[in-house]
């Protein structure tokens, strides 16, 4: 079965191995995709552990559990990423939140919430802590509520398919 992150790779060789702690994401894009997978599968322990330590609040775990319980993720689209100078970053722990130029990933995540369809576009920043990539923070670039969409209407993800043959199928 292909991974829900849209990588076109088998799930067991993609995000599943990171969420189950059988492997470590080697790039910010891999971590971001695995976090999407974790949201889609309500793997909140992984979502918390993949956050930067400085952003882990006492309420974070419960917020993630609550959010995962009421959303259904349909599609992830990675628009761009900036992963300059990453060759030795995991070994050297060279990226910290004090640096100005952190690796970024720009993506859109499509999801259902209370029977309405949404897209969230974000520019996320990542750091390395204890030899692993962590999600630091994200800037919301766009958040659109498409409401209820007719099944025969074009899918808002711009795939060119009807809604019923695209994002609605993930529901």
Automatic annotation (TrEMBL):
Under Pfam families, the record lists:
SEC-C, YchJ_M-like
What are the residue boundaries of the YchJ-like middle NTF2-like domain, all occurrences included? 27-138
- Protein name per the record: UPF0225 protein YchJ
């Amino acid at each position: 079965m292909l991974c829900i992150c849209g990588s076109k790779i088998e799930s067991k060789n993609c995000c599943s191995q990171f969420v189950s702690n059988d492997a470590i994401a080697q790039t910010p894009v891999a971590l971001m995709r695995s976090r999407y997978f974790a949201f889609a599968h309500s793997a909140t322990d992984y979502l918390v552990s993949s956050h930067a330590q400085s952003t882990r609040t006492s309420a974070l775990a419960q917020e993630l559990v609550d959010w995962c319980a009421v959303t259904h993720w349909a599609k992830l689209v990675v628009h761009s990423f900036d992963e300059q100078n990453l060759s030795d970053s995991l070994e050297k722990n060279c990226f910290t939140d004090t640096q100005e130029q952190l690796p970024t990933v720009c993506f859109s995540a499509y999801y259902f919430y209370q029977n309405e369809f949404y897209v969230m576009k974000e520019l996320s920043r990542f750091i390395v802590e204890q030899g692993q990539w962590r999600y630091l923070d994200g800037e919301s670039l766009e958040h659109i509520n498409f409401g209820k969409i007719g099944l025969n209407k074009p899918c808002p993800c711009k795939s060119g398919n009807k809604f019923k043959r695209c994002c609605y199928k993930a529901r």
